[in-house]
Amino acid sequence: MPFVLYVLALAVFAQGTSEFMLSGLIPDIAADLAVSIPAAGALTSAFAVGMVIGAPLMALLSRRWPRRRALLVFLVTFLLVHVVGAVTTSFAVLLATRVVAALANAGFLAVALATAAALVAPDAKGRATSVLLGGTTLACIAGVPAGAVLGQEWGWRAAFWAVAAVSVPAVVALVRSVPGGAGVAAGPDGAGVVAPDARGELRALRRPRLLVALLLGALVNGATFCTFTYLAPLVTDVTGFGAAGVPVVLALFGLGSFVGVTAGGRLADRRPRPVLALGGAALLVGWVAFALAAGDAVAVVALVFVQGTLSFAVGSTLIARVLYAASEAPTLGGGFATAALNVGAAAGPWLGGVALAAGFGYRAPLWVSALLVAAALVLGGAAEAVRRRRRAAGGAAGVPVGTP
Description:
Helix content: over 70%
Order of helices and strands: HHHHHHHHHHHHHHH
Distance between the termini: 29 Å
Largest sheet: none
Radius of gyration: 21 Å
Structural class: mainly alpha
Oligomer: single chain
Shape: globular
Number of strands: 0
Number of helices: 15
C-alpha cells in the first residue's frame, strides 16, 4: 500500500479520537462551563449531525479542488477548531467548534476515501479502505482511552490539545507525500483526469447496487454503535465487572475491530459476497449469543472481541463495495459512504436508548443490534435475489451475463 495511505490513516486516527473521546469528558466540560450534563451531551449530537450533513456537502464543494488542497484545508480546519475549543470559556463557541470539526472531518474522510481508491490498483480498493478505517479502530483502542486519561489528569482541555498535536505531523506529511493535480478524482499521479460533473456523479449514485450497499452499511454500523455505546453499563450491571474492567472490555472491542478491518480489507477485494453473507450471518448469531450470555464474564470477554471483529470486517467490506459501485462518482461516493456510516452511528445508539427508556434493561441494545443485522441480511438477500433474476433474464435474452 502507498505510504500516503498511512498518513491519511494518522489523520483519521486523530479525527476518530475527537469523535469518540467526549463520552468520558462530558461531566468535566459541563462543570467547567457551567452547563447541565444533557446540554453538554449536545456536543456529541452536534458532531454526529455535522458528519451526516457534512460528508456529501463537503465532498460536493471540494470535488474540483486538487486532492492535496482539499485534504489540507479540511485537516488544518479540524486542527484549528480544536485549538479554539481548548482555549474557549464559552459553551456556545465550543458547540460551534464541534459542528465545524465534524464538517471538516466528514470532508476529509470523503476525499480520503476517493484518494485512497485512486492511488491503488482497481482491484485493491478494499485493502486501501481497511488502512483508512484502521485509523478509526486504533482511535478506539488507544486514542479514546488516552483522551480519558488526559482529561482525568489535566482536565478536558488537554484532550483537545492532544488531538490538535496529533494532527500536526499529519499536516506536514500530507504536504510532503500527497501529489497535487487537477481534482480528487484524478489518477494516481494526481493529474490528467478531469472530475466528472456533479450531475453525472449524482446520477451514478442512484444505482440500486450502490444504494443497497449504503443502506446495509448504515444498518451494520448502527448495530455496532448501538451496543458499543451502552457496553459500559452492560458489563458493570449485567456481567458484574467492576468499573476498572470497563476500559479493558472497550479495548478488546477496539482490538477486535482492528483485526476485522485488516481481515476484511484483504477479503473485500477477492471474496466480498462470502464475507457479507457468512460474516453477516455470524454477526447476527453473535449478537443473539451476546444477549443470552451477557451475565457470563468469560462469554462476554470472548464475544466482545468476536463481535468487534465481525462488525468491522463486514462494515469495511460494505464500504469497499460502495467505492467499487461508485467508480463513476468517486468523490460523492466517498461522501455518501461517510454519511451512511454516521447515520448508523447516530441511529443505533438512539434506538438502543429508546429500548432502555422502555424498561427492557441493559441487554436491550444487544437485541436491537441483532434486529438491525437481521434487517440487513433480509435486505441483502432480497437484493441478491433480484440481481440473480436480472442476470438470468439477461442471459435468456441474449445479453452477456456480466452486463451490469
